[in-house]
Amino acid sequence: MTEKSPAAHATPQDAELIGADKTLLIVDDDGPFLRRLARAMEARGFAVEIAESVAEGIAKAKTRPPKHAVIDLRLGDGSGLDVIEAIRGRRDDTRMIVLTGYGNIATAVNAVKLGALDYLAKPADADEIFTALVRREGERVELPENPMSADRVRWEHIQRVYEMCERNVSETARRLNMHRRTLQRILAKRAPK
Question: Which residues carry this modification: 4-aspartylphosphate (predicted)?
Answer without folding.
Answer: 72
